[in-house]
Specification:
The complex is a heterodimer. The longest helix of chain A has 12 residues. Helix content of chain A is 21%, strand content 18%. Helices cover 67% and strands 2% of the residues of chain B. In chain B, helix 9 runs antiparallel to helix 10. The chains are: A alpha+beta, B mainly alpha.
Chain lengths: 255, 290
């Protein structure tokens, strides 16, 4: 049924730290690796070794340059992983004509039942985040499942029962948990760091949150910089020599 | 948005076909027997031909029947139901006219409502999308309905109605373009809100996530088709509205009528191409494109 549930019992989702993401794309690779051989149709590639390669990915990392408003501040490069935000008001679900797209009541995960998907593409049109991609080989819509086949999978060791992207992130920039529970670690993290929604004006109420980059250290302008910032490092360690070394130093100077 | 030929053909032809069916359902023109047969054949060829074309862009057309199930939430599902309902009602109405020379006015009225409903639900598929600010306006259903009814009247040979509705549709078209050119800027969605980084400073897309293209860029970021937008708008106005209007004032002949209809179709096809090619999906912002 493509009507949205009025309320979900939990709001499972990701918190992505834009301050610590190093842009290594490991999450992209591990996502593709897990999801191409598990839930649903594989994530196909077209012309992967040719001149015009393309393929289906559920997670992609953009990089943005932000030029701070203050003239003196240096530009920042911010790596920006983007996947399905499992919105509370998911527009992709309600537009689906067949009921293939749905939002789960128990954990709020937005999924596609691929055997009902006719591949009309309207859900991808309705998503402002580009989180859905039609697989060119299978003709069905693919999207992030929040690794629904990992997080409840009792055949996996407990530490692996998180989405593949979270498990693999070497920088610890991705966090997984229940954002509907104010006492959860992810909710506290969002509270502490001022976690934000993407495109709030679209009214989708995303579950996934992004932690903004922390302010960077500022290099002082030349006029303010009376003191050489390197001075403490260049200052001589030894003062005037004393004792025997002092006598030797003076004696050798005289020769 | 990618101007998929199947969708352009579908919306153009079926819009015209359902417009013609609407006027036939109201008994304009009041035809029976063979003449009615020809009118209905043309209307069904356009409407059904368009619907068939629309299934070409599906990944799994064999599952299309499932699309009738989600009418509670989905405009696409509602469109499917309206279209099938309209075609069934008008089949009964048409068969009675052609074979029994009998006009079932009530069935006709139901058919007329369903025909308008089909065009309206088609337009709402686009108008509902917040992600495409150019489409997200009540002017979109107004445009689709006025085009369908004007084109239908032209095809039905209802000169006076067409002479009134063609300028109305042209006005709706111009108003739609005028609003659409400002729509993305006025929607409030930009790279700053898309990334949430706007309060640090000005954001610029530095590196895309992939070196090649992908589904998102192919489907939503179609810039090539906008190159000749101004010229195509003039072509759409001249062929779609002005030429048929002038030809309607010329003494009637079937040849002149054919030219008028062909010209209208060409103009509407150009307009529909722009409808897709000029539409900016907000996902393009993530790529620093529009």
């Amino acid at each position: 049924m493509t009507t949205l549930p009025e309320k979900t019992q939990r709001k499972m989702g990701l918190v992505i730290d834009l301050d610590t993401c190093v842009g290594c794309h490991a999450c992209v690779v591990s996502c593709k690796g897990w999801n191409t051989e598990n839930y649903g149709a594989p994530l196909s590639d077209q012309d992967p070794y040719g001149g015009d390669p393309s393929g289906t990915f559920l997670n992609r990392v953009h990089s943005y340059e932000v030029k701070p408003l203050a003239e003196s501040a240096a530009a920042q490069l911010i790596h920006f992983p983007k996947s399905c935000l499992h919105c509370e008001d998911a527009p992709c679900v309600t537009v689906c004509p067949t009921g293939a797209s749905y939002k789960r009541v128990e954990d709020g995960i937005v999924l596609v039942n691929e055997s009902n998907c006719i591949g009309c593409g309207l859900c991808a049109w309705a998503c402002p985040y580009g989180a859905r991609e039609m697989d060119a080989a299978e003709g069905v819509m693919k999207k992030c499942t929040l690794c629904v086949d990992r997080i409840y999978n009792e055949n996996l060791p407990e530490e692996d029962r998180v989405p593949a992207c979270v498990r693999t992130c070497p920088a610890g920039a991705r966090h997984f948990g229940d954002l509907g529970d104010p006492e959860s670690d992810v909710s506290k993290l969002v509270e502490e760091r001022g976690g934000m929604d993407l495109m709030p004006e679209q009214g989708t109420k995303p579950v996934n949150k992004y932690l903004p980059p922390r302010p960077k250290d500022q290099v002082m302008a030349a006029s303010e910089a009376e003191i050489d910032i390197l001075a403490p490092l260049l200052a001589p360690v030894a003062e005037e020599p004393k004792g025997f070394i002092g006598w030797l130093d003076k004696a050798l100077e005289k020769i | 948005m990618h101007p998929a030929p199947s969708v352009i053909v579908f919306t153009t032809l079926s819009g015209l076909g359902f417009g013609l069916l609407f006027w036939l359902a109201l008994g304009l023109p009041d035809v029976t027997g063979w003449v009615a047969f020809v009118f209905f054949a043309i209307a069904y060829a356009l409407a059904v031909g368009g619907l068939m074309a629309s299934t070409f862009h599906l990944g799994h057309p064999e599952r299309a029947m499932k699309a009738f199930t989600q009418w509670r939430s989905s405009w696409l599902s509602r469109e499917g139901l309206c279209a099938v309902g309209a075609l069934l009602a008008m089949a009964v109405y048409g068969a009675a006219l052609v074979f029994l020379e009998m006009r079932l006015a009530t069935v006709g009225l139901i058919g007329a409502i369903l025909c308008v409903g089909t065009v309206f639900t088609t337009s709402m598929i686009y108008a509902q999308l917040k992600t495409v600010p150019r489409w997200n306006t009540p002017l979109t259903p107004l445009l689709f309905l006025s085009l369908s009814l004007a084109g239908g009247a032209l095809l039905a040979g209802q000169a006076i109605i067409a002479l009134v509705l063609l300028p109305v549709a042209a006005a709706a078209q111009v108003a739609w373009w005028f609003r659409g050119d400002k729509a993305l800027a006025e929607s409030g969605t930009n790279l700053a809100t898309a990334t949430g980084l706007g309060n640090i400073g000005s954001v610029r897309a530095f590196e895309p996530p992939h070196t090649g293209t992908n589904y998102l860029l192919r489907e939503f970021v179609h810039v090539v088709g906008r190159k000749h937008a101004a010229k195509l708008r003039m072509i759409a106005l001249a062929f779609g509205f002005t030429a048929p209007f002038v030809l309607l004032l010329v003494p009637f002949s079937h040849f002149v009528a054919l030219i008028a209809v062909a010209s209208h179709l060409a103009g509407i096809a150009a307009s529909r191409w722009l409808f897709f090619a000029e539409a900016e999906h907000v996902v393009g912002l993530y790529y620093g494109k529009r």
